[in-house]
Amino acid sequence: MANRILVGIFIPLIYACTSIGFTPAASAEENYVLKSGVTLTKEVRAKVKKIADEYHKQTGKNITVASGTRTPASQAKAMYEKLEDGDDLKIYKDQISAQAIKKAYDEGKEKNLKRVAIEKEMTRVISEQIKAGKYISKHLRAGAVDIRSRDMSASEKKAFRTAAKQTVKSVLLETTPPHWHLQF
Q1: Is residue 109 located within the same domain as residue 134?
Q2: Do 151 and 177 fall into the same domain?
Q3: Average pLDDT of 171-182?
Q4: Rounded to an integer, what is the distance from CA 37 to the centroid of its chain?
Q5: Which domain of life is it from (predicted)?
Q6: Nearest of 46, 45, 50, 42 to residue 34 by alpha carbon
Q7: Is the pLDDT of residue 17 over 50?
Q8: What is the average per-residue pLDDT within 14-37?
Q9: What is the Cα–Cα distance from 60 to 65, expressed in whole angstroms?
Q10: Helix (H) or strand (E) segment spanning residue 7
């Protein structure tokens, strides 16, 4: 009887979480959740766990992984959203590649193309860059994750930066959209 009650509570909870865009972390003991569709390698997952555990120890809160390893299409989608929000892509080190992707976006907008067509062209540009050995983002090589920051207070952001610096090569608080960009 008790098992049926637990299943009756637990299964709807899983469906509720996934319907709003979240998937559970590796287990109930994890101090992070993955947004729906986020992919992490085993090595990156271990690093995220270490950061999340330290952050949880300092704040009592969990973190949300908003993005992990990306395909050219998911990278195009992320960059499209940044451009829609008014970002100029100046944050990218390889400005030649970034501006080529922005050009695909700008030309699509000038032609009044639908989002799907613009993202398709941006994906083509990113794919061509990868074929040439140029990766606009470490997300494309399983070397970066984005952590949601919009629900963190100033003291929680400080605690997160401290926790992340112990594990990653680079910690950057981006504003468009607001998130922590971590590179391994």
Answers
A1: yes
A2: yes
A3: 92
A4: 10
A5: Bacteria
A6: 45
A7: no
A8: 61
A9: 17
A10: helix 2-19
Which domain does 85 fall in, by range? 72-138
Pair 77, 29 in one domain: no
Share of the chain above pLDDT 90, in %: 82
89 and 62 together in one domain: no
Give the other-Cβ count within 10 Å of 169's Cβ.
11
Residues 6+ apart with CB under 8 A from 34: 22, 23, 24, 25, 40, 64, 65, 68
For the record, the structure tokens of 64 come out as: 């949300």
Identify any residues that bridge with 171 across adjacent strands, giving them in sequence order.
182
Residues 74-116 have pLDDT tens digits of 999 999 999 999 999 999 999 999 999 999 999 999 999 999 9
63 and 80 belong to one structural domain: no
* pLDDT band (50, 70, 90) for residue 152: very high
Q: How many structural domains compose the chain? A: 2
CA–CA distance from 75 to each of 120, 133, 177 (Å)? Answer: 11, 16, 14
